[in-house]
Design a protein that fits this description.
Shape: globular
Distance between the termini: 34 Å
Number of helices: 14
Structural class: mainly alpha
Number of domains: 1
Order of helices and strands: HHHHHHHHHHHHHH
Number of strands: 0
Helix content: over 70%
Largest sheet: none
Length: about 290
């Protein structure tokens, strides 16, 4: 999560929050295809069967309608705030607050999705729980290959490459001197990839445990809803838990300092590029909110 201030997303409606937090360069196209893309993403984990597929598509469409009608103007306003801050002299406190604003919107989205998540949890079969577990394991192996295996230099390079993709989306190209400065700032951050893998696995296990509990106890809607809400609360507040708060706080501090380095060394032309990019996203969100 060291780069989640740059690229934070919640699983459901990932296209929307990716556009907000990561700066997707084709927001309108991605968002308008988002219901289909989200269905494919979920199906790659679950492998829907029969009527499950129809219900999932219906629920995803309902969520997207709510999101388009109620959230996108807010996203545009938030980007406008960031745009004004970048025009001045943003501080690290501004970046920390931006992280918190995205987190608030993630939690809002999660809360709205509880009925649909409950329906899905109630329909999951033991075989599909196995599908999800295998997908989790495959994704974890991919993470190990990219961010844990090999030398420290290899792992630093992989992390730096990932962050540079986001910086270049916002600011455009960087000179070799700027890249060298950013690489030094990136490498100065602790390599906590093993801890982030532990967090991934913890969350995955809690999701699997919830699904197994709902399935084995054959929970009704009220029971399943309460279980989904309890898991959401646990995972969203984990950053504040005694065993993790210091780590998360340190990670946010390190990441925002790193982003401040990029802002500090950006040229006027690069900042103008970022301003124009954000204006394009603001226009896209407003157009999408109007149903176009």
């Amino acid at each position: 999560m060291q780069d989640t201030l740059i690229r934070r997303t919640f699983a459901l409606l990932a296209i929307a929050l990716m556009a907000l937090a990561a700066g997707c360069s084709t927001i309108r196209f991605s968002y308008n295809q988002g219901d289909t893309l989200l269905y494919w993403w979920l199906d790659s984990y679950v492998d829907f069967e029969g009527q499950q597929a129809d219900v999932a598509k219906r629920d995803i469409n309902t969520l997207f309608q709510w999101h388009r009608q109620t959230q996108l103007h807010d996203y545009a306003a938030l980007l406008g705030t960031w745009q004004r801050q970048l025009a001045g002299n943003p501080t690290q406190a501004d970046l920390v607050n931006a992280y918190r604003e995205v987190r608030v919107r993630s939690e809002r989205l999660g809360a709205r999705a509880v009925p649909e998540l409950s329906t899905l949890a109630m329909s999951i079969t033991p075989e599909q729980i196995g599908n999800i577990e295998r997908k989790f394991n495959a994704k974890n192996e991919e993470y190990r290959r990219k961010f844990i295996s090999g030398s420290n230099d290899k792992r630093n390079r992989a992390r730096f490459k990932k962050s540079m993709e986001q910086f270049e989306l916002w600011f455009g190209n960087f000179s070799s001197e700027q890249e060298a400065t950013l690489r030094r700032a990136s490498d100065a951050r602790p390599l906590d990839n093993n801890v982030w893998l532990e967090e991934r696995i913890y969350r995955q296990r809690r999701i699997l445990a919830m699904l197994r509990e709902v399935q084995q106890k054959k929970m009704n809607r009220e029971q399943a809803t309460a279980r989904v809400q309890a898991l959401q609360k646990e995972l969203f507040t984990r950053m504040e838990s005694p065993e993790r708060k210091a780590f998360y706080d340190a990670s946010i501090d390190q990441t925002t300092k790193y982003i401040m380095t990029a802002i500090r060394i950006a040229t006027p032309q690069q900042k103008t590029h970022a301003q124009q990019r954000m204006q394009g996203w603001i226009n896209d969100f407003q157009t999408l909110a109007a149903g176009k």
